[in-house]
Write a structure and sequence with these properties.
The chain is α+β, with helices and mostly antiparallel strands. The protein is built from 22 helices and 23 strands. Strand 19 (about 640-645) and strand 20 (about 650-655) form a beta hairpin. The N and C termini lie far apart (about 80 Å).
Length: about 725
């Protein structure tokens, strides 16, 4: 087994974060928000990916990252202007860097030809920068006659200073957080060694005895001497990614220059004074160092830089501590909390059955236990909650690629990226959002010339947003394109025999035709669409999550696709009902209203389900007992209770049940995983009395009712 496997896994997880940072920063630069902080953040992201790749010998990744890093370094140094063409190139390079990371992680091949093309384009910018600097130097090139100069000792010192070769002392003590963030001192020393000749003294005075040693703590410090042609800022660049996780002091202690010897006015001090690094005393520094390594290296022939003055840095801001937990452990914790909820409900049920007074100490203790259980459950669910940012950031690249494939100019705007939802929902919404964005660009946004002719900007806008609403998360994909051409949609549906030619449909029903299997408005198959697979998959995926999708479209102005999803798939608030001595649960989010049917509100229509009038709306009555096969004879409506429900697909009906037991939060157990799929049933749960209760699938209950409902409404209104 690879001993570095765990460290590699951590590195690739951090690569995902760095790639997201890179994408976000470059997108901001494209929008004209390329301030120094943004540019530096982008550079650090590329540099971090390259540094980690070098530690694991991922040469292809290192080489490509180095080219991108060089370009970014020129940008942050002001040698390159981040104009539109360059930023677009760097965005393509960011995509390619992501491919290299995935290839290194999964072992899949990378498109080497594309990688070399992008690298060559970046190198052309880099070479242009160098040639530009050379031309600038040539402008000031003048003829001169060399003369002999005899230098005194002071002249030699001045000449050495001019050459810029200096000796630096670096006092470095890592904090515990440096190791917790998977950083390694050895890699920092190797990076310093690239600058010049290095000698390193290890300070170990704080090292405790073996029995008192805590592996996660930091006990060691280093005093590093570096002879190099560089200034302090170049040294600090080596430590810039760990500056919040260490104490560091850098000072220039002498100036030297290759073969020129410079005598000092004062002798070299025998003591090493380290007052700036907490935890390192002078006495410790005087002790013989148990580990001293001298790593000589030829001095680099870089251009001289002026010495930098010593800087005083403010105390580092302490970052919030995080810990990575295996997903299986988290799932196990969620399952255990679910069992705790069930057992708490059982205790409450037994208490009620035993006839204990609500004022008894036992009942009060059970009430406290219920509150504590709910708090624990909420806390665990919040641990599983993740911002949708991880999904939204992936879509920027998708929009670029689809825009290029369709020859359209499209800008993606995101909003509400920090909206949190359960991780299981996060994992399953990426595909539906991908389909919706591709559809918006391919079928919604017009070509630039068409947009200009219509009085619109040449660049189309697609907005991807998320927000919490009524205990659910709503994700919207909005475009400013042409909207849905309803005449064409209906004509295609008739041509494909999806509907009859004489059917009378509302605008909403026509819009929903695009979700029918096999429907497509594309005239030919392309890389983007035309295979008749997509929007029907979107609806099925959303419905499998207990969600719904709705469309709002205005011809010539654009369309809005709204996804309404539950915040979690582990628990739900439900209404417990009785049907033929069976206990069922209906998701509370689907219930709009409950009522006792009155004779005056009931209507019978020939050839149609019985209707009930609810707030001037006529909806069909569905006998849940008959629908699930619990009885053959229909329940008299006046003898039961009607639940006015709205499905995730937008259908409405009144579910007729025998009685309502109450409302409670229930833990969802999969039917398919533990038994098999059952029509009309979405899942199961365990009640307080230990019995299994089935959770009704409202969507399937109302399947086929929507068209009848619209027709019945018209008939009832006409009557």
């Amino acid at each position: 087994m690879d001993p570095l496997a765990a460290i590699k896994a951590t590195y690739f997880q951090e690569c995902d974060e760095q790639l997201a940072e890179l994408e976000t920063g470059l997108s901001a630069m494209k929008d004209g928000e390329g301030d120094d902080e943004t540019v530096n953040a982008v550079f650090r992201a590329a540099h971090s990916i390259k540094g980690g790749a070098g530690a694991f010998g991922l040469e292809n990744l290192v080489q490509f990252a180095h080219v991108l890093e060089t370009t970014l370094d020129d940008v942050r140094a002001g040698r390159l202007a981040p104009d539109g063409d360059l930023v677009n190139l760097m965005l393509r390079a960011s995509d390619m860097l992501s491919d290299h990371v995935n290839a290194a992680r999964d072992g899949n091949p990378v498109d080497q030809a594309r990688s070399e093309t992008i690298a060559r384009e970046l190198e052309n910018y880099n070479e242009a920068t160098k040639s530009g600097s050379a031309e600038s130097d040539d402008e000031f090139d003048i003829d001169f006659a060399p003369i002999a100069v005899t230098m005194s000792e002071g002249d030699a010192a001045a000449e050495a200073a001019a050459l810029g070769v200096r000796e630096w002392e670096i006092q470095f003590r890592p904090r515990t957080s440096l190791y917790a963030h998977a950083n390694e001192v050895t890699l920092l020393l190797r990076e310093l060694q690239r600058l010049g000749t290095l000698s390193v003294d290890l300070i170990y005075g704080d090292l405790p005895s073996l029995q008192d040693l805590v592996p996660e703590e930091s006990y060691l410090a280093w005093i590093i001497r570096l002879q190099a042609d560089c200034d302090e800022s170049r040294i600090r660049e080596v430590f810039e990614f760990v500056e919040d996780d260490c104490d560091i002091h850098i000072q220039c202690i002498s100036t030297c220059a290759g073969e020129i010897e410079v005598s000092h006015a004062q002798p070299e001090p025998k003591e090493v004074i380290v007052p700036q690094v907490p935890g390192i005393s002078t006495a410790q520094a005087d002790e013989p160092a148990p580990a001293k390594a001298t790593m000589p290296m030829p001095l680099p022939a870089n251009s001289a830089n002026a010495p930098a003055e010593e800087e005083k840095h403010a105390p580092a801001v302490v970052s919030p501590q995080t810990i990575r937990v295996d997903v299986d452990r988290l799932e196990r914790l969620v399952d255990l909390v679910g069992e705790l909820v069930i057992n708490q409900a059982m205790l409450a049920q037994r208490s009620m059955e035993s006839g204990l007074s609500r004022a008894s100490s036992f009942a009060n203790g059970l009430e406290d236990l219920e509150h504590l259980t709910r708090d624990i459950q909420d806390s665990v669910m919040s641990i599983r909650a993740q911002p949708v940012k991880s999904v939204f950031q992936r879509m920027t690249r998708l929009v670029r690629e689809v825009s290029a494939a369709t020859g359209k100019r499209v800008r993606l705007v995101t909003d509400g990226e920090n909206t949190e939802v359960d991780k299981t929902v996060i994992e399953r919404i990426a595909d539906p959002i991908t389909h919706l964005l591709r559809n918006a660009i391919d079928h919604g946004i017009e070509k630039p010339d068409i947009r200009i002719a219509a009085g619109k900007p040449a660049e189309g806008v697609v907005r991807l947003s998320a927000l919490h609403r009524s205990g659910r998360i709503v994700i919207e994909v909005v475009d400013d394109g042409a909207g849905i051409d309803r005449k064409r949609v209906k004509a295609i549906a008739v041509e494909k025999n999806l509907i009859s030619a004489d059917v009378n449909l509302s605008d909403e029903e026509i819009d929903n035709l695009i979700f029918m299997p096999g429907f497509s408005t594309a005239s030919s198959v392309s890389e983007v669409s035309g295979r008749g697979v997509g929007m029907d998959v979107v609806r099925r995926n959303i419905q499998s999550l207990g969600g719904r999708i709705t469309i709002s479209s205005r011809p010539g102005l654009g369309s809005t696709f709204s996804l309404s999803l539950p915040l979690t798939l582990a628990v739900l608030d439900g209404m417990v009902i009785s049907v033929c001595n069976q206990t069922l649960v209906i998701p509370l989010s689907a219930v709009v209203e409950t009522l006792r049917p009155k004779e005056g509100d009931l209507h019978e229509l020939k050839g149609s389900a019985p209707l009930i009038r609810i707030r001037d709306l006529y909806v069909p009555i569905i006998d849940v007992g008959r629908k699930l096969g619990h009885r053959t004879e229909p329940l008299v409506p006046a003898a039961g209770v009607a639940l006015f429900v709205e499905s995730e697909g937008g259908g409405r009906a009144a579910l007729l049940v025998d009685a309502i037991q109450g409302q409670r939060q229930v833990v969802i157990k999969s039917m398919e995983a533990n038994y098999r799929k059952v029509d009309g049933i979405a899942a199961a749960t365990i009640l307080g009395d230990g019995r299994v209760a089935l959770i009704v699938d409202v969507e399937s209950m109302l399947a086929g009712q929507s068209v009848d409902m619209f027709r019945s409404e018209k008939r009832a209104a006409a009557g």
